[in-house]
Amino acid sequence: MSDYPRQYNAAADMVDRHVSEGRAAKAAFIDPMRTLTYGELVAESNQAANLMGALGLRREDRAACILLDTCDYPVIFWGAIKAGVVPIALNTLLTTEQYRYILEDSRARVLFISAPLLAVVEPILASLPHLAHTVVVGEGDDFTVKRATQPESFTLADTVADEVAFWLYSSGSTGMPKGTKHLHTSVMETCRIYAKPILGINEDDVFLSAAKLFFAYGLGNGMTFPLSVGGTAILWPERPTPDAMFQLMQQHKPTLYFGVPTLYAAMLASGHTETGDNLRACVSAGEALPEEVGKAWEKRFEVEILDGIGSTELLHIFLSNRSGAVRYGTSGQAFAGYDLRLVDDDGSDLGDGEIGELVVRGPTAAEGYWNQRAKTRLTFRGEWTHTGDKYIRSADGYYTYQGRTDDMFKVSGIWVSPFEVESALISHAAVLEAAVVPAEDDEGLLKPKAFVVLQGGAASEGLFETLKAHVQASVGPWKYPRWVEVVEELPKTATGKIQRFKLRD
Ligand code: 3UK
Q1: 410 with 416: CB under 8 angstroms?
Q2: Cβ(170) to ligand 1 under 6 A?
Q3: Residue 317 Cβ < 6 Å to ligand 1
Q4: Residue 194 and residue 285: Cα distance in Å, rounded?
Q5: Which residue ranges in the chain fall short of pLDDT 70?
Q6: CB atoms within 10 A of CB 441
Q7: Which mutation among 198, 263, 309 tests ligand 1's pocket best, with the greatest number of atoms within 8 A of CB?
Q8: Which among 11, 32, 197, 300 would be 20 to 30 A from 456, CA to CA?
Q9: CATH number, span 185-339+360-382
Q10: pLDDT at 172
Q11: Which helix or strand (DSSP H or E) is residue 294 part of?
Q12: pTM surpassing 0.85?
């Protein structure tokens, strides 16, 4: 961990510094409606900080944010942090009941919500005892009016380095989402350890992230990485479709692009060929990038995709491929700043070639989950964060993903990773997506069962037998699915991860 003074507010480093460093007139954020310069970001976030006080918020109160990606996002997020108020970046795609749970759980005092999303929370607003204010952001706009009347100067709250700066809600594969508390130093540390050395970010970079700011991945890509170096971020409030991403690339010529595997695959399938010609690197995270997708992308666009794994708990990527040493189909190698171990169920270290749970030590781990002592203790064990992900490490230090610990099961005494079987299924041309779970056969023994979404709708004659043989040939005789069921879509979390537990009997 690099040295931080005891008294430290992340907004000083991320926001205010840029004006004294001469970037007042430079674009910090560009959305389809406006450009926000660094000078305007400082002034508007100061107004937002003053607004927190005017609303009666006090230090450590929580401000829930259900916001589309526009220039108002960093204004509100940093306005809160400046005031010592704790912003909670929430997924914009949740249901009314999920918002009820989170707003009650967090006891947020104020909700900042984009106008188009208001209808989803309206039915519950009156019944939330801790919520004192709802501020609408966007057209017809409450926020801009309220902010504009506030002074443009503000003295930063004298927070300390070890103090909670913001929360994210971690969805996990099962159970209710957990408020994950991050410290003031964590944002700069993700930039120092990952984004600067691995991506070489600098002030001339233009960042485009398909992942939204409410997701830890997007918060880094689209906000804290650019702010850490004085670069420019392109924000897109709508759905990140392939057409939209290519259009933004041609318009803004980003130097770095951040996507997720399914979108890379969809962008390749879209047939577009223009990325604006300035891309230096692309990043993929959220789930494992299939080898074929990485290779096809690099061939078509002549730029590498650096697959890396990150989590809400560790804030950003802690294991990654690096430029010039990419091995598609893996999550790459360890890099300085994070210590990695693979351990068995007893916590003993495993050697190369053995499958174990990945545990990580680094300065960006969350302080813990809000009001969840048992879960906090299981995930954050002393200095080591347990990821719940299984990996295998090669002799030359490359890590290959093997699925979640909780989804693994044994067939004839041998571990089966659903992920491995799914990858084999997806590598067949007829299969778009697949999920594999254990199911009991006639003798009550567990065997793999597959749910597949097909590329072209209906199953052709003999397809199931073909798929079984295909899996047998690629991953081993006992792992093939004994049953194959065609479905329209797979159950997924809000961040797009398959919920296998919902498919188990
Ligand atoms: C899975 C991956 C294989 C893995 C995230 C980058 O995804 C992020 O955070 P979440 O909390 O999910 C964490 C879990 O997602 N995963 C993420 N990346 C990969 N699996 N290969 C990958 N490259 O199960 C992990 O435990 O939603 C990603 C940066 C910040 C993030 N929060």
Answers
A1: yes
A2: yes
A3: yes
A4: 13
A5: 140, 172-174, 413
A6: 12
A7: 309
A8: 300
A9: 3.40.50.12780
A10: 65
A11: helix 291-301
A12: yes
